Each structure stands twice: as C-alpha cells, then as structure tokens.
Amino acid sequence: MELLVVEDDAVLGRVVQRELNEAGYQCEWARNGSKGLEQARAQKFDAILLDLMLPDMSGMELLRQLRGAGILTPVIVLSAMSSVDERVSGLNAGADDYLVKPFSIAELTARLTAVCRRSLNKPSTSMKVGPLDLDLTTRRVSRNEQEIDLTPTEFSMLEFLMRYHGQVVTRKMLCEHLWESDWEGATNVIEVHINRLRSKIDKGFDEPMIHTVRGRGYTLRGN
Predict the structure, then answer these.
(1) CB–CB of 179/190 below 8 Å?
(2) For residue 45, what are the domain limits?
(3) Would you say 76 and 111 are in contact if contact means Cβ atoms under 8 Å apart?
C-alpha cells in the first residue's frame, strides 16, 4: 500500500516513515500542509496519515480541502490532542480514524488495515482525475464538462486507468481487467483500444492525459 504521512515533527516523521517502510508499505513524507495537499492531489494514495498541528495550514483545513476536492482517500488523524471534542471535530471534518500521540506502530498498522478495508467495501460511484469525470452509475464520461461517447470496452479501460492514475498500467493488466483474470494471449490488441480511447479523451485539448510509457505500458495523468 502507498501511504502519505503529513507531519512537521522531523523526528516523528522520520520514525513513522522508516517503520512503515520496514513493515512493507511504500511511505512518502510531507513536512507541511501545503506539500501534503500538493502530493495528495497529484498522486493516488491508499491512505493518508495527517498531523493536525502543521506550521503553514492546520491539518483540519488540509482535510477540508481534500474532501472539498473530491479526494476520498482514507485519512487517519495523528494528534496529541485527545479530548472528545477534538476527536469529534476531526471525524466530522472527514477523517476516517483518529489516533492520539504517542502511539505504537503496531496499532497504527492495524488501523491502516481497518480503514483501507472499509474503503474497499464502499466503492465510489464516481471518479475524477483532473478535468476528467467518470460516473459508474450512468456510465457517462466528460472532460471539462464536454461529454465523451465511449464503447463499453473503452469505458472499462478508462475506469481502470483512472483507478491507477499517475501509475503505470501494463498491457497485461489491461487485458486481464477487460477479458480474463488468467489472460495469456497477445497484448497488441490493447494498443488499438488505447489509440481509440486516446483519440476521444485527448482530441481537441492542449494537454494529453493518456501517456505511453515506453516498454512498460500506459499512465493517465491530470492536474
């Protein structure tokens, strides 16, 4: 799992990052709220660990901006403030859990597992990457509010790319997603579908969103 830790305390941030990396997570560390917000917007994380007392903006404000931008990544608040009112405020602002400092790494990893499991059990019906919107219920896709007509295969392919936006998706991954879980056939058919999808998603816009990663696959990027 890929995690983002937003923590200004250098000692604690370094310890949490090292311990979580050693526990098998891929952990990035932002030392202030602005950097944390920038990273959370630019990359898809499985969970965010958020300190409330940050130097440039409060963790509560960062959390409100994340939720206001439609970023539903599970957030665990890490705070020395342990009153009931503080915990309630954090949860009401959109946090998924609240852990009081000091805490053990064992408890933190257990809570991470729990919030990510709950998140997987509640799939969102809509997705957004930059100017691109996809609605799983109505199966409508739009970019900058311009509706785009996709075939079922193109829709499914775009959904997969959006779920892994910012990351490389291989041709084999796309084949397995679209047709068979144990796909072993040729993957060049994916190039045909990608080219058609790219012509619909990127045509008429200055900035392309679907990028080819030579020798690896494709990635969807959007600001």
Answers:
(1) no
(2) 2-120
(3) yes
Beta strand spans in 94-187 (E): 97-100, 126-129, 132-135, 140-143, 146-148
DSSP string over 180-199: -TT--S--HHHHHHHHHHHH
Q: Report how far apart, in Å, the C-alpha atoms of 63 and of each of 140, 158, 222 are.
A: 28, 28, 21
Q: How far is 4 from 99, CA to CA, in rounded Å?
A: 16
pLDDT tens-digit series, residues 136-194: 878 899 999 899 999 988 999 999 899 888 888 888 888 877 775 555 555 578 888 99
Whole-angstrom Cα distance, residue 106 to residue 110?
A: 6
For residue 200, the tally of other CB atoms under 10 A from its CB is: 17
* Coil, strand or helix at 63: helix
Q: Which residue has the tokens 């665990």?
A: 76
Are 142 and 159 within one domain? yes
Nearest-angstrom CA–CA distance, 142 and 134: 7
Give the chain's domain count. 2
Of 120, 136, 163, the last residue of a domain is: 120
Strand partners, 155: none
Q: Which helix (H) or strand (E) holds 93?
A: none
- Identify the CA nearest to 220 among candidates 212, 209, 204: 209
Are 28 and 11 in contact by the 8 Å Cβ rule? The answer is: no
Question: In the structure, what pLDDT confidence band is assigned to residue 215 with cuts at 50, 70 and 90?
Answer: confident
Written as six digits, the tokens of 121 are 């059990």
